[in-house]
């Protein structure tokens, strides 16, 4: 599992952690049952506070993405394919709406915007 944070980002560190794990779960990189590293380990490796990591883990658990078992730590929760697809769509919904608003202001047609998106998706 890869985790990183940018201390200078305007996004709170706990939220950065949440989003990293969220992205890895919905992309399939992390699967049901995969263990999360201990909170203290993450805090030490990233140079952040234990409470910050705990806040991220609590938010992930509240959203049903991880489970905590006494004595076993935290792991990725079972999430069915339908729920993962829903989460993936939700994750791109707001940025997509913003892109559409910007494209309309710039005079893009639907076809032009789709072509731009297609071009960007095929770039490496």
CATH architecture of the largest domain: Orthogonal Bundle
CATH class of the largest domain: Mainly Alpha
Q: For this structure, what is the CATH homologous superfamily of the largest domain?
A: Winged helix-like DNA-binding domain superfamily/Winged helix DNA-binding domain
Amount of helix: 55-70%
Proportion of residues in β-strands: 5-15%
Whole-number count of domains: 2
Span between termini: 23 Å
Q: Treating each run of at least 4 consecutive H or I residues as one helix, how many helices?
A: 5
Can you describe what's shown?
The chain is mainly alpha-helical. The chain has 2 domains: 13-76, Orthogonal Bundle (Arc Repressor Mutant, subunit A); 81-122. Helices cover 59% and strands 6% of the residues. The protein has 5 helices and 2 strands, in the order H-H-H-E-E-H-H. A two-stranded antiparallel ribbon has the order 1-2. Strand 1 and strand 2 (73-76) form a beta hairpin. Helix 1 packs across helix 3 (50-62) and helix 2 packs across helix 3 (50-62). The two termini are 23 Å apart. The model has no long low-confidence stretch (mean pLDDT 93).
């Amino acid at each position: 599992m890869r985790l990183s944070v940018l201390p200078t980002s305007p996004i709170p560190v706990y939220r950065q952690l949440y989003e990293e794990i969220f992205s890895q779960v919905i992309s399939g990189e992390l699967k049901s049952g995969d263990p999360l590293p201990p909170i203290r380990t993450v805090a030490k490796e990233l140079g952040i506070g234990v409470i910050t990591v705990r806040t991220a883990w609590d938010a992930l658990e509240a959203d049903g993405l991880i489970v905590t078992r006494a004595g076993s730590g935290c792991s990725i929760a079972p999430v069915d394919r339908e729920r993962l697809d829903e989460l993936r769509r939700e994750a791109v919904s707001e940025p997509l709406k913003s892109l559409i608003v910007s494209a309309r202001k710039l005079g893009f047609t639907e076809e032009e915007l789709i072509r731009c998106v297609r071009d960007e998706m095929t770039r490496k």
